[in-house]
Amino acid sequence: MGCVFGKESSHVGRKEGDTAAKVEESSRNSKLEEVGESSVAVKEEEGKEKVEEGGHHKPSRESRRRPRQNANPRPRNVPKESLSEQVAAGWPPWLIELCGEALRGWVPRRVDSFEKIDKIGQGTYSNVFKAKDLFTDKIVALKKVRFDNMEPESMRFMAREINILRHLDHPNVVKLQGLAISRMSSSLYLIFEYMIHDLAGLAATPEIKFTESQVKCYMHQLLSGLEHCHSRQVLHRDVKASNLLIDDEGVLKIADFGLASFNPDMKQTMTSRVVTLWYRPPELLLGATKYGVGIDLWSAGCILAELLAGKPIMPGRNEIEQLHQIYKLCGSPSDEYWKKYKLHNPTVIKPREPYRRRIRETFEGFPPSSLPLIETLLAIDPADRRTATDALQSEFFRTEPLACDPTSLPKYPPTKEIDARKRDDEARRSIVAKKAEEGTRKKHPRNQRVRAFPAPEANAELPLNIDRRRMISRGNAKSKSEKFPPPHEDGAVGFPLGASHRIDPSAVPHDIPYSSTSLTCSKDLTQNGSGPLVDPSSSRRKKGTRGKPQEPSKLSVGTSSNQ
Ligand SMILES: Nc1ncnc2c1ncn2[C@@H]1O[C@H](COP(=O)(O)OP(=O)(O)OP(=O)(O)O)[C@@H](O)[C@H]1O
């Protein structure tokens, strides 16, 4: 499409591999170096781990998992001298090839120098475990990259995350402490400080209602982390509450940089298929391939409004509906917008009648000082969203009650998102079991409805706790639109955005001209209105992914040059 979005910047053009070379090494050579690979207490057998993860025995996947090892790998971005240094340090050649300079100054840890305690999360390309570092006795999070068939996409996301995280250093950005490899170098683990909460988990806990100063505290930390990322030319591209981790001191850290990208000068084209649907800005829904910090700021605006509202503000079920919800809340783009961003493509969705902006009236119960910031962050034109630095200086953070100190936040019991989901699943299962039991007792036509009651996994949006589920679902959502709740249930979710907040997913909003292939200009939107959410060739489906917003297509390949 080639439209230019966002504002700024004076960034210097740079490639990912190059940037890693600029990382200050000294601060990174922490304990891990001292520890090295010696004296490892074997606490876990690799075979056992496979059983746990898959839930059933699988034939050894050692050969399948192992990276396609080039007999004579020639790492692309590693100078000769550091290549030999890295080989000597014990890094497998395939990892040197992928991560190059980002490994510099580190030595690999052995995964059996950690004791796995529990699985705490699951993402598109990883499983995350709570583990104990047997050298330091500290609790860490191990993000195990799934290398099924050595999928190049998984490896690329992993390499990107490592490269970018080594380039960042801020209290509100999760710190990559090192890397661990398994005995046969077939699995790779990213070692992170362990974070007891994520914001989605906290927000989904019915007993927790954030005060205004707590919302300010979280938002200030989020914007500070984003300010740092943007100052280092990094766009996160998947800001959402489940990617905002919180430690037991109340410190919020932005995590999951698997979709992040260096965005040197906004001249490079990038895929528009990023950011989880409910947090995706209009320009991406319209197929922009050149964009900037505005995309993260939009997501931050959604999170701010969500924390104040107590529920997601625009829970669209597919891209068309998402765009429609945006128009209804934020107004439709002006004629200048279409001209400025050269979105005159006839395939672009453009409402027949313009929508009026209704942020202030929709959120009239919000603290007044929050409204200008929400207005700015949710500006239709990304240039009007300004910067994270501007947001931090907004009236919202200068008006009483001020942001509380993170250490003064209540000490919440562990609320990992995955735990909240387990609790919900259990509650749903018991409802379904009860209904099924009633169904077998009563021989009545109505019972057929009971039998047709969706399986717990099949419909996450039972009346039990729709809003809560919506909040939780932001975490590991990888769903396709057909997994969203039926229209009759949708009226109960999300913030009321106007008269018609019940939208039949199969029905295109009447005032938006639409043809089945025409939501955006990108060629990759051919599978459905929402485009491929997972690798279409892959029939694998993750557990617990129903009824959730679409995640960015980590496995899909966009049409643009820089993913
Ligand atoms: N440092 C950490 N401490 C505690 N939990 C963590 C940590 N890092 C990740 N998690 C948990 O694991 C989950 C998945 O991690 P992450 O989002 O980084 O993986 P991913 O494969 O990139 O996932 P996604 O598909 O959601 O983008 C998170 O939602 C979080 O609950």
UniProtKB/TrEMBL annotation:
Compositional bias of kind Basic and acidic residues: 8-34, 42-62, 414-440, 479-491
Domain Protein kinase: start-end pairs: 114-397
Composition skew (Polar residues), residue ranges: 514-530
GO cellular component annotations of the record: cyclin-dependent protein kinase holoenzyme complex; nucleus
Gene Ontology biological process terms from the UniProt entry: positive regulation of transcription elongation by RNA polymerase II
Binding site for ATP: 143
Keywords: ATP-binding, Kinase, Nucleotide-binding, Serine/threonine-protein kinase, Transferase
Example of a GO MF term: ATP binding
InterPro entries (UniProt xref): CDK (IPR050108), Kinase-like_dom_sf (IPR011009), Prot_kinase_dom (IPR000719), Protein_kinase_ATP_BS (IPR017441), Ser/Thr_kinase_AS (IPR008271)
Pfam families: Pkinase
Region (Disordered): 1-85, 404-563
Superkingdom of this protein's organism: Eukaryota
Family note: Belongs to the protein kinase superfamily. CMGC Ser/Thr protein kinase family. CDC2/CDKX subfamily.
Protein name as annotated: Protein kinase domain-containing protein
Organism (species): Trapa natans (Water chestnut)
